[in-house]
Amino acid sequence: MPTTLITGASGGIGYELAKLFARDRHNLVLVARSADKLAQVATELQAHGVTVKTIALDLVAPPAPQFLFDQLQREGIVIDVLINNAGFGAFGEFAQMPEEEVLGQIDLNIRALTELTRLFLPAMVQRHSGRIMNVASTAAFQPGPLMAVYYATKAYVLSFSEAIANELRHSGVTVTCFCPGATHTDFAKRAGVENSRLFKQLGAMSAEKVAVDGYRAVMEGRTLAISGIHNWVVAQSSRFAPRKVVTAISRWVAEKVQ
Ligand SMILES: NC(=O)c1ccc[n+]([C@@H]2O[C@H](COP(=O)([O-])OP(=O)(O)OC[C@H]3O[C@@H](n4cnc5c(N)ncnc54)[C@H](OP(=O)(O)O)[C@@H]3O)[C@@H](O)[C@H]2O)c1
Known about the structure:
By secondary structure, the chain is an alpha/beta fold. Helix 1 (12-23) packs across helix 8 (207-220), helix 3 runs parallel beside helix 4 (99-127) and helix 4 (99-127) runs parallel beside helix 5.
């Protein structure tokens, strides 16, 4: 049975992805900070006859990816599929944003994702087999006033993933950059964007539906997948409009409404 490692699997998109992998009989390694929520997820998913190992870890802490890798090495657990899903956003003007929010987003969305990829990839290359999915966002396609750091971190994830997917094209290892648009999870609350035009007026997809798109994309080894046709259209249209216009629309979407 293959083993899939999912970060941010205690809720939201990561949890829905974990359900799909368990149903398809993948053993799981689930990572997030909340040990209690992970334990509940493990109990639920073990019903599919798979092994579910949970590791409660704050991936913002720089040594965390290496700690996770070392623990799995010691236990002889081989990772066939790596899903770098954990991430968070923070709303507000950059000049007023607290340091821990700024660096936390970079450390989780960029640093931990890159470090986990660096650690788990060589063994996949050696086996000529493996799948990595990095969860970016439709935020990756344009600058994001009022969420400047978050959007920039996701642009990094898109660029990094597409580049290494190309490097690995003959290796037997696939790298997928998965881009959800607004999705009903705890993300909006943590980011402070529940009252943004995007979430209040433009509508969000369900995490179940988004996870189905992500699951299909990673199993098909697609390099880039955008969840939802409307999100695909928006992402594509931003390529042709002037950057200033795209940035202004992006701000309008992020602004809070009554
Ligand atoms: N929801 C959206 O609208 C949306 C849109 C586009 C892209 N995305 C991306 O989708 C991914 C999943 O987000 P989501 O919407 O499912 O959000 P979510 O419901 O807030 O879930 C985030 C997951 O990451 C974990 N996590 C957060 N901080 C962590 C840390 N420091 N160390 C380890 N785990 C951590 C959380 O668990 P704990 O709190 O237990 O640690 C949780 O399991 C993120 O990369 C996000 O940027 C979301």
